[in-house]
Amino acid sequence: MTAPDVIVIGGGIVGTTTAYYLAQRGARVALLEKGVIAGEQSGRNWGFIRRQGREPAEIGLAARANAIYAGMEAELGESGGWVRGGNLRVAEDEAKMAQYQDWYAETDAGRTLGTRLVSDADIRALIPQMRGDWVGGIYTAEDGHADPDRVTRAFAAAAERAGASIESDITVLRIETDGGRATGVMTTAGTRPAGAVVCAAGIWTTRLLRPHGIKLPLRWVRGTVSITEPLPAFTDLAVWTPRVAFRQRRDGRVILGMSGSSDFDITLDSLQDVRQFLPNYVKNWRLFRFHLGRMLLDDLRRRLPDSVGANPFRWPRATEPPPNLGKVTRSRAAFASLFPELGKPTTERSWAGYIDATPDGLPAIGAAPQVGSLYIAGGFSGHGFGLGPAVGEALSQIVVDGRSSIDLSALRPERFAERGRPIHARSVT
């Protein structure tokens, strides 16, 4: 059997789109996923697709991703639930509004993104049913939202139609190298040789890169999401308020995410990288909720010498990340207070997923600094779904051409090993 030109590790939005664009360019591609396609964060996020509020280093990718999503149905024959309804962020106080104004001025968002600074009256016109007193906000009409699991699976299916091989339930245990270059991977099904390897393994990325001396500090941030029963149509907007973010799907159900604090489950990886995360924690300590418990114990258990057959890259379904039920309750109450005429909608389901977050809140994308023919896409810090298709396209260009059409120098993987602190994100997320 002929070895593939490229092995892609990970069946999330970045992995599936990378496989798709590489196959479109004629490369022989094999995508290996330890579970199922869209089984982790790429199938569990809020589904917001936005250029608004992005760090300047990400705006090029965000703009390209927005265009890909808008043309997805024509290209793939599947909309993925795409709705170009706009993105609205509201501010309750002058301090938050000042952040929006600073970002708007710094990025020239009015000219480059069609973003508007909006008043309380503008907000009421955009979404008349929503109650509240707002100082103002920002609004980008061309942003949108989609259903993450549908999108990711659609790109996987399109990659297969283009000639890519996709295998589920195969865990990559190690990236193989020879003479300073990646030569394939060792998996639970044996060694798989390849001409190049793309590591898009989400929260597991650090464990695959560290044996090769590549420093990519990640923390595991647990995000909780819930979905309501179907409601009458009330908006196409994706909306961020101080206490809840929401979007209404085409079937009437509403996705709710809790704004504000993050659940940070401590693992062995996060303990090793604590110094790099300390400045961000000190600055934003009110936003973090640290959990020292089952995740760390499970992590230790999987890595003990006597854990014969244990898979350090996977957790049993019985210990999947639990949703923060307090957040589910609070987000539902916050939504009900914004829309009293809709009553108190029933929560049909809630779930959680792990976000791979970096110290500066920005992803690492590009060629590995110390290993030839190895490429990295990790640390998306909650931005992976919104940026994913553009990242996949850019990675296909880097692998085939040696460079991407979008400048990714500020997102270079090696920045965390360089002297001084990494660049600080200035987004308004």
Write the layout of secondary structure elements.
Blueprint: E1 6-9, H1 13-24, E2 29-32, E3 48-49, H2 56-70, H3 72-76, E4 87-91, H4 94-107, H5 109-112, E5 115-118, H6 120-126, E6 136-140, E7 144-145, H7 148-161, E8 165-167, E9 172-178, E10 181-187, E11 190-193, E12 196-199, H8 205-209, E13 219-228, E14 238-240, E15 245-248, E16 254-257, E17 262-265, H9 268-272, H10 274-283, E18 288-291, H11 294-303, H12 325-338, E19 347-357, E20 364-367, E21 374-378, H13 384-401
Parallel strand pairs: 1-2, 1-12, 2-8, 4-14, 12-21, 17-18
Antiparallel strand pairs: 3-7, 4-6, 5-6, 9-10, 10-11, 13-16, 13-17, 13-19, 14-15, 15-16, 20-21
Helix pairs in contact: 1-7, 1-13, 2-13
How would you characterize the overall build of this protein?
There is one protein chain. The protein is of the alpha/beta class. The chain has one domain: FAD/NAD(P)-binding domain (3-Layer(bba) Sandwich), CATH 3.50.50.60. The protein is 31% helix and 23% strand. The protein contains 13 helices and 21 strands. Strands 4, 5, 6, 13, 14, 15, 16, 17, 18 and 19 form a ten-stranded mixed β-sheet that branches. Strands 8-2-1-12-21-20 form a six-stranded mixed β-sheet. Strands 9-10-11 form a three-stranded antiparallel β-sheet, with no helix packed on it. The N and C termini lie far apart (47 Å). The model has no long low-confidence stretch (mean pLDDT 90).
